[in-house]
């Protein structure tokens, strides 16, 4: 069995990574103001949850597979994205 990104890194490490990212974002003069000042905790939790979700399922979908056209099932709303 091949180790997945998630099994090698783990939820705790992803949580620490996101926390470190948001500590730096809060201090950043360009990116920091893009976040509502009272939403830091929720923003951090949303990113952490998203990354954990994606990392757990990394073996079933990859960005490069989508780029190469290997992923053919697309929801109807996604198929209209190119018409914007």
Please count the helical segments.
5
| End-to-end CA span | 42 Å
Q: How helix-rich are the residues, as a percent range?
A: 55-70%
Number of domains: 1
Number of strands: 0
Radius of gyration, whole Å: 17 Å
- Net shape: elongated
Instruction: Kindly name the structural category.
Output: mainly alpha
Q: Kindly report the average pLDDT value.
A: 75
The stretches of 5 or more residues where confidence is low (pLDDT under 50) are 71-84
The biggest beta sheet is recorded as: none
* % residues in beta strands: under 5%
Can you write the helix and strand succession as a string?
A: HHHHH
Describe it.
It is a single chain. With about 80 residues, the chain is mostly helical. It has one domain (about 5-70). Helix content is about 55%, strand content about 0%. It has helices at about 5-10, 10-25, 40-55, 65, 75-80. Helix 2 (about 10-25) runs antiparallel to helix 3. The radius of gyration is 17 Å and the shape is elongated.
Task: Give a quick set of tags describing it.
84 residues, mainly alpha, 5 helices, single chain
Give a short summary of the structure:
With 84 residues, the protein is an all-alpha fold. Helices cover 57% and strands 0% of the residues.
How are the elements arranged and paired?
Elements: H1 5-9, H2 11-27, H3 40-56, H4 63-67, H5 76-79
């Amino acid at each position: 069995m091949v180790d997945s990104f998630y099994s090698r890194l783990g939820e705790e490490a992803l949580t620490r990574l996101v926390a470190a990212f948001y500590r730096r974002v809060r201090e950043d003069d360009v990116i920091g103001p893009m976040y509502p000042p009272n939403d830091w905790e929720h923003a951090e939790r949303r990113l952490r949850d998203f990354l954990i979700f994606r990392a757990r399922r990394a073996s079933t979908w990859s960005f490069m597979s989508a780029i190469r056209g290997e992923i053919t099932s697309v929801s109807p709303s996604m198929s209209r994205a190119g018409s914007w």
